[in-house]
Amino acid sequence: MRGKRSKAYRKLMSQYNMTFGFREPYQVLVDAEIIKDATKCKIDLAGGLQRTLHGAVKPMITQCSIRHLYLLSPSEHPHKDVAINLAKTFERRRCNHHELPDPLSEKECMESVVVHNGENKHRYCVATQAPDIRRDLRAVPGVPLVYINRSVMIMEPMAPISAMKREREERGKFVVGIKDTRPKPVKRKREEGGEGREGGEAEEKKKKKRKGPKGPNPLSVKKRKKPEKPEASPEGEGVKHQEEVGVGAGRSKTKAEGDGQAQAQAQAEGDGEVRAKKAKRKRRRVGKSSSGDGGDGAAGDGLTPTIPPQTGGDGSEATVSP
């Protein structure tokens, strides 16, 4: 397959995927004529469909089509057995026409399987060699058509009715906007308390953005220091731990106070001894200085010496005149 044609087929299948919801593996409904041409030209039908549709495929054949293969004469179609064996490898699609004595024509059978209320309900890709079947299926929107032309598998461009539907949906997207069109799940009411709301009422209103001056940059503001909280102890050991901490703190406090008092008392006693020694030394110095100064004063200064009082015979003091 040439690159230009392959690119066009890939683009075409992407349009079918987006507009009509086709998904891999693609369900490809084949008829008896394309199986005969594939065996005649020795074409790998499943591989060719996969390359043409650019994805995994699941070939399917109706009961009427395989009955048409069994009715072929061996003289006119020498590859009858090969075609039947190839058809048996495909998945059998029930058309509910097996009760009839003679199979329906492939046109009626395939239209009854593909078309439901004017649409391709099950999203079938149709591979057929019959021009009348392809002509009728072009009137149904969203039906990819594939056929073989001179041992080359070709996919028809999108039919006009399919292209119109695709264009209409694309315009609708521009008007409404690209939104999720899937139905939203409805929330059920709560059984307990009866406080629940339905899906439309349960949606909370979005908070409006506050207008006005913005606050400072949080990265440039100095963070406040949080007060350190004491580590929480387990429930069983919490009270005991607090009591032990309190008793230990009291003992340490009492011990510290006792040590401080003893140290202050010892310091006071040491200061008293030092002061007493200093006073004693001072007295000694004063005594020595007074004794030295007294002798010198009596001899040189002419001061009157102190005379001790004299007592008489009767014990009375006698006055002595100077």
TrEMBL record:
<keyword id="KW-0539">Nucleus</keyword>
<feature type="region of interest" description="Disordered">
    <location>
        <begin position="166"/>
        <end position="322"/>
    </location>
</feature>
<keyword id="KW-0698">rRNA processing</keyword>
<dbReference type="InterPro" id="IPR006984">
    <property type="entry name" value="Fcf1/UTP23"/>
</dbReference>
<dbReference type="InterPro" id="IPR029060">
    <property type="entry name" value="PIN-like_dom_sf"/>
</dbReference>
<dbReference type="InterPro" id="IPR057776">
    <property type="entry name" value="UTP23_sensor"/>
</dbReference>
<keyword id="KW-0690">Ribosome biogenesis</keyword>
<dbReference type="Pfam" id="PF04900">
    <property type="entry name" value="Fcf1"/>
</dbReference>
<feature type="compositionally biased region" description="Basic and acidic residues">
    <location>
        <begin position="166"/>
        <end position="205"/>
    </location>
</feature>
<feature type="compositionally biased region" description="Basic residues">
    <location>
        <begin position="277"/>
        <end position="287"/>
    </location>
</feature>
<comment type="similarity">
    <text>Belongs to the UTP23/FCF1 family. UTP23 subfamily.</text>
</comment>
<feature type="compositionally biased region" description="Basic and acidic residues">
    <location>
        <begin position="228"/>
        <end position="244"/>
    </location>
</feature>
<comment type="function">
    <text>Involved in rRNA-processing and ribosome biogenesis.</text>
</comment>
<protein>
    <recommendedName>
        <fullName>UTP23 sensor motif region domain-containing protein</fullName>
    </recommendedName>
</protein>
<feature type="compositionally biased region" description="Low complexity">
    <location>
        <begin position="259"/>
        <end position="269"/>
    </location>
</feature>
<feature type="domain" description="UTP23 sensor motif region">
    <location>
        <begin position="207"/>
        <end position="226"/>
    </location>
</feature>
<dbReference type="Pfam" id="PF24779">
    <property type="entry name" value="UTP23_sensor"/>
</dbReference>
